[in-house]
Structures are given as structure tokens and as C-alpha cells.
């Protein structure tokens, strides 16, 4: 299983790998080591560091990733390779085709900023051509999280319809993330969890919070959870510190206790217009039973039915974001009703057992 970073594996793919190991597969995780290698190896999984810069488009760095995967696949001779994320699908898929790997699983977990426009750029067209060469063959399965991503692959003849598999996001353990009533707190806590990238809506949320401060500054708090990133659209530490007073707007950085913070929250606000798969943050908030405000954008719109378990707003529309926050902050009964609906939606759509069974079925077919 090839993923960008070890911490992404732990947050998004760990249950699948453990289930495969329990079924008798010899599972190796290939990822950039950011410090979580020991945690992965304690699970009984092998780990091999990956040479990759997830946010780079530098040709030299891209060649290094391609070369490292070539040497790795040639040495290990895997029966099945499972690529997670666009860059790994691109280079890993190409290596798998050239070395004639027997079984390939490509998991599209969002197409990101490269495919955010209405028309394909020159670079995105080149990426599609390479992936067509890699994917348009037998014994390759491609897992999608939303129909928009599937459509772009089908329309550009990257894959055949019979290669498509589908899971609604990465799944959630509904026994671990169980429904919790909103806390009886004097403050209404609004939570945001993501990397600090403009396209994730962090700047829009901060502006909305600042507009609402005269009305709700004494009864609401904003918890912004996530790390900085070298991504070209990432916000700077200076920007975050200048806009966060750690009382009304609080930047909490990268956290490992997101579940506890969600339990202490009242509202999930995630105004992302990034080309998501299905955001794990929204799945987790749904499972806890929190109403969600997010954008009517690819991936995000697959979690929220407007007016039922939250509000869908138009991307970059701060006026709508302000109005939606105002409605939920002011109305406890609305929050409770929408939170209950969110939990039911999680039970119907995002159970991790469904995701695991889909992957095990694919592995079995390719074995």
C-alpha cells in the first residue's frame, strides 16, 4: 500500500491494512516517514520509506519518486500494489505497468487543485494520458469516493466502466466515533479540521468569524485544527497568528485528539472548495452527531443534504457562511435535529466495515 505520508495512512487507511493482514496477506506500507514508522510497525505491518514530496511538481523530485518506486517494485515483486492518492497512482501505476505487476488497486481520494478548473490544463491532460496508459488494462481496479471524479476518468478514457469500484470516503468506526450530545457549554464551539490551505476555506471561515464577533463574540469560539503546509496555497504562520487571539479564534495546530474536540464542539464548519474525495473531517463530525456547514463542492456535497444535516453554501460565499453560522449558533433545537440526522447519515453511508469489505473483495479478485 503506497500513500504519501505515514500519518495519512494511520488516519485514513489503517483499518484496511490490518484487516488484510488478518486475512493472511503480507502487508507492507510504503510512505514518507514523518515520524510514525514505529507506530505502523507495532501494528505488525512492514514499512518502507518513500522518496516523495507530496506538494511538489519539481521534475527532479518527481523522477526520484518514479525511480524509487521502480527499484522498490523490482526488488519486492509484489502480487498486488494499492496506490492511494493522485501522485502515487500516476507514478506507481506507470511502474506497475512497465514491470507487469499482477494486480493494481488505485484509490482516488480527491483530485486536488490540479483539476479544480472547469477545463483541464495542459498538465492535467498530460497526467490523464499517462494514467490512461497505466490503467486501461486488465487486473486494474480504481476506487472512487465521489461520482464527479469517476466521471472525469471515464470521460477521458483513463479507465473502463467495469474497472470502477466505489466507497463513500475512507469510512469511520461507528463504535469508536459514537454519537455524543452537544455539551452544555456557555460557549458555542465551532470546529474546523484540515491542513491550513486557502482552498480548504480557512481564510473564509476566519473572515466570517470576524464579522460575527460583534454578535457572538461573548458566546462562541472557533477552533482551527490543522498544520501548516508548504503547498503554494497554504497560509503562513504569520497570517494565522495575526488573525487568532486564542480566545475567540483559536489556532490549535495539528492535533491527535480530534475525536475529543469534536465531542466538545457544537458545529463543524468546513467551507472547502478544494477538489476533495469525501473529507474525513466531515465523516467524523457526522458520526459524532454534529451539524455541518460546508460548500456545495465536489466531495463535500456528498456528506450534507442541505437543510437536513447541515447547510451547503456556494464556494467562497462568505455572506452565506455568515448566515449559516448565525442560524446554528442561535438555534439549539436546529443543531440537535441536524446532528441527529448527521449521525443517521453516517450509519447509512460511512461504516468502516463496508469500506473494509469492499477492499477485501478487490484484493481477493486480484490475488
Global morphology: globular
- Number of distinct helices: 14
Helix content: 40-55%
> What is the distance, rounded to the nearest whole angstrom, between the alpha carbons of the first and last residues?
15 Å
Show unreliable segments: none
Biggest β-sheet description:
6 strands, parallel
| Quaternary structure of the protein | single chain
Helix-strand makeup class: alpha/beta
Instruction: Write down the Rg.
Output: 21 Å
Order of helices and strands: EHHEHEHEHEHEHEEHEHEHEHEEHHH
Strand order of the largest sheet: 10-9-8-11-12-13
Number of DSSP-assigned strands: 13
Into which percentage range does the β-strand content fall?
Answer: 15-25%
* Average pLDDT reading: 94
Key words describing this protein structure:
367 residues; alpha/beta; six-stranded parallel β-sheet; four-stranded parallel β-sheet; globular
Amino acid at each position: 500500500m503506497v500513500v504519501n505520508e505515514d500519518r495519512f495512512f494511520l488516519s485514513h487507511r489503517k483499518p484496511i491494512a490490518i484487516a488484510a493482514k488478518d486475512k493472511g496477506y503480507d502487508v507492507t506500507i510504503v510512505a514518507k516517514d514523518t515520524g510514525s514508522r514505529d507506530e505502523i510497525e507495532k501494528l505488525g505491518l512492514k514499512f518502507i520509506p518513500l522518496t516523495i514530496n507530496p506538494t511538489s511538481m519539481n521534475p527532479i523530485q518527481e523522477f526520484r519518486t518514479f525511480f524509487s518506486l521502480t527499484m522498490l517494485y523490482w526488488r519486492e515483486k509484489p502480487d498486488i500494489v494499492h496506490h492511494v492518492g493522485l501522485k502515487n497512482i500516476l507514478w506507481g501505476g506507470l511502474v506497475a505497468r512497465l514491470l507487469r505487476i499482477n494486480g493494481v488497486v488505485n484509490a482516488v481520494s480527491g483530485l486536488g487543485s490540479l483539476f479544480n478548473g472547469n477545463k483541464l490544463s495542459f498538465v492535467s491532460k498530460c497526467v490523464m494520458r499517462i494514467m490512461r496508459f497505466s490503467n486501461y488494462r486488465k487486473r486494474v481496479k480504481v476506487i472512487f469516493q465521489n461520482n464527479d471524479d469517476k466521471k472525469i476518468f471515464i470521460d477521458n478514457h483513463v479507465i473502463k466502466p467495469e474497472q470502477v469500484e466505489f466507497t463513500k470516503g475512507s469510512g469511520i468506526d461507528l463504535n469508536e466515533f459514537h454519537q455524543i450530545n452537544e455539551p452544555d457549554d456557555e460557549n458555542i464551539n465551532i470546529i474546523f479540521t484540515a491542513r491550513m490551505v486557502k482552498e480548504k476555506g480557512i481564510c473564509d471561515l476566519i473572515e466570517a468569524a470576524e464579522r460575527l464577533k460583534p454578535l457572538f463574540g461573548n458566546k462562541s469560539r472557533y477552533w482551527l485544527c490543522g498544520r501548516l503546509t508548504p503547498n503554494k496555497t497554504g497560509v503562513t504562520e504569520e497570517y494565522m497568528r495575526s488573525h487568532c487571539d486564542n480566545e475567540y479564534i483559536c489556532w490549535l495546530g495539528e492535533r491527535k485528539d480530534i475525536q475529543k474536540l469534536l465531542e466538545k464542539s457544537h458545529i463543524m464548519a468546513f467551507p472547502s472548495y478544494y477538489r476533495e474525495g469525501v473529507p474525513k473531517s466531515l465523516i467524523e463530525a457526522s458520526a459524532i452527531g454534529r451539524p455541518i456547514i460546508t460548500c456545495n463542492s465536489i466531495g463535500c456535497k456528498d456528506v450534507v443534504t442541505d437543510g437536513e444535516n447541515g447547510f451547503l453554501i456556494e464556494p467562497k460565499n462568505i455572506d452565506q457562511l455568515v448566515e449559516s453560522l448565525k442560524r446554528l449558533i442561535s438555534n439549539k433545537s436546529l443543531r440537535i435535529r441536524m446532528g441527529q440526522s448527521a449521525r443517521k447519515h453516517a450509519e447509512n453511508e460511512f461504516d468502516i466495515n463496508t469500506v473494509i469489505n469492499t477492499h477485501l473483495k478487490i484484493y481477493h479478485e486480484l490475488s
